[in-house]
Amino acid sequence: MAASLSTNSYNRQNWEDADFPILCQTCLGDNPYIRMTKEKYGKECKICTRPFTVFRWCPGAKMRFKKTEVCQTCAKLKNVCQTCMLDLEYGLPIQVRDAALKIKDDLPKSDVNREYYLQNVDAALATSDTIGPGGALGKLPSHKSELLAKLARTTPYYKRNRPHICSFWVKGECKRGEECPYRHDKPTDPDDPLSNQNIKDRYYGVNDPVAEKLLKRAQAMPCLEPPEDKMITTLYCGGLDEGVGEQDIKNAFYAYGEIRSITLVGKQGCAFIQFTKRSSAESAAEKTFNKLLIRGSKVTIRWGKSQGKTAAIGTSPDQGMGQMVPGHLPAAPVEVTKNYFGLAAPGGSAPAGFMPGMSLPSSLPAPPLGGSQYPSQDPSRMGAQAQQQPQY
Questions:
Q1: Mean pLDDT in residue range 312-319
Q2: CB-based contacts of 193: which residues, under 8 Å, 6+ apart?
Q3: CA-CA distance, 242 to 305, in Å (whole number)?
């Protein structure tokens, strides 16, 4: 203990004497008629080393006995359970909660500074009207976070109260059978980071393997990335019911910025919301992605596509010449004059390296679009004018 009962009254007045512990629903168990044992000044707090009242109980059938590990002052300071050191509101480690709420609460770790700090906290909690968290967490106006709401457990996790693994059963020496109060399960991998946890690291929010696992899960959650084209200010809203109207969509998005237009496609159950500013569209996409409910149904949010990219398909100079324009006939083959037997080039002179008996290539370049396609479409080829033969 930090001090004995024979010391002066100044040290004893800081000892904790409580009637009921501060526990979460998981540690308390599902039994409404639970029985606890109370030991006044039974142990010292594992954080501040001050004696406090220890409570011990069994959460339920085939569960291990649990007891309080820290005093109520340290628990109120971080708003955590006295046994599992998890947040009372969300059931998450302190490191995850402080990272989501952007709290930096550096508690003193030396004996003298910690004792002085906790005395001031006790005085502040005693004079406050409402019993709540102290320190930096108690100064926040509200403890709301979208990340915490996603990671938080909605129901108690009673599996955490299971007995420990029987070491004799692992060695093959347990002879108690079903009467053994410990679990007969295979132990986890010793190299697993979750097998090495420290109560002080969890309380101070540093090097907590459970918190690191949850933070990695939060980073892997899907998110809606804004497109690179800054001209896109339209959001796609899908999964709408038949009774959803334009006013319902406007009520859901008007708080994020000025809306230019709303296009509702009732048959497909979707709508397109165009904002006047890109910042308004980004704010609406960030705050409504996987969260928006319209008339009780969850709505899918996506970014609109750029119209310039879809219109530019097939209009590039390299691709336009080789493609057929709708409404025009295919290109006619070019007639080769004075080359009845394939002995000379169209110009009248044989090219270099030309061998008699060689055939010309089967495909010739097509004439430009807009000109005559067939000989019958050329007025000069209709017999009105005779083709003049060159004179030698």
A1: 46
A2: 209, 212, 213
A3: 24
The token pair at 347 is 């110009």
The DSSP annotation for 316-379 comes to: SHHHHTTSPPTTSPPPPPPPPTT-TTS-S-TTSSPPTT--TTPPPPS--PPPPTTS--SGGG-G
**54 band by pLDDT with thresholds 50, 70 and 90:** very high
Neighbouring CB atoms inside 10 A of 263's CB total: 12
> Highest mean pLDDT range out of 145-149, 189-193, 235-239?
235-239
Q: Tell which residue, 170, 160, 127, has the closest CA to residue 29.
A: 160
What strands lie across the sheet with 51-57, from one edge to the other?
36-44, 51-57, 66-67
Count of positions (residues) in the chain: 392
Angle of the 246-253 helix axis to the 278-288 helix axis, nearest 10? 90
Cα separation, 94 vs 203, whole angstroms: 7
Cα–Cα distance for residue pair 30/158, rounded to 1 Å: 8
